[in-house]
Amino acid sequence: MGSTTISAVRTASRRRFLMCxxxxxxxxxxxNPWMDPTRPVDPMLAIEQWEALxxxxxxxxxxxxxxxxxxxxxxxxxxxxxxxxLDGRALVSAFRHPQRAPESGAxxxxxxxxxxxxxxxxxxxxxxxxxxxxxxxxxxxxxxRTAASSHAETADYLGRPVIGLTLVDPxxxxxxTALAVLDDEQIMYWPGAFSPASRxxxxxxxxxxxxxxxxxxxxxxxxxxxxxxxVLLPAPARSLAARLATEGYQPLALDVSELAKAGGxxxxxxxxxxxxxx
Length: 278
Hints:
alpha/beta; Amidinotransferase; three-stranded mixed beta sheet; DDAH-like; 23% helix; hydrolase; 15 strands
């Protein structure tokens, strides 16, 4: 987890992702500060933006699996929240808000049908939205959508140490809006999203982590997808893209403005599965 320079050589790792087409995307309720049901949404533009994201991932050589959207679940496009997957095990989410709770059944069926070992979380646990694997541990956000009391179950089932991090700014209601994993060792985060104790914990574990400014964080700049070299992030996070380039990453800007109306960015749209064979 050492410091980086522009001369750093970054290596992409082929990934497998699960995505859900936003066929029924809408903002019909408000369960985070970004959602405003009175604000117009263009469903066709949302689909175009999602297809562009999927196209970039495929173009980079990644594998994209699809789960069928369900008509009454407009937020199902945010597949990252459906489960946390490690080593062939899927811990299916237990959503805090009733509007999203039925998604769990769809994700459970998808994983069981494909031979994954599956457990359904017993306490609030919103999947990879609040659980990011890096450096042999799972960083786990809590405070808004995932319960701290769920961490023991996560550690037990996934077989990794879980490091709890308290989120304190409701704009950053999931960990993946406040912290990003760039490669197997490096993370990037906005300190203001975390409690003082959690900031100290992050600094202790990742002393050379990249810290971003609030103006990039509120553009969902941290809700990014990285394969260790290419970094897909929202187009408005321009200064963050420039920063990543100086660190040896290749930023790829995407327009996800319609999906952002529901509080999501590129990372929210993908759930990382087991990596495919080389």
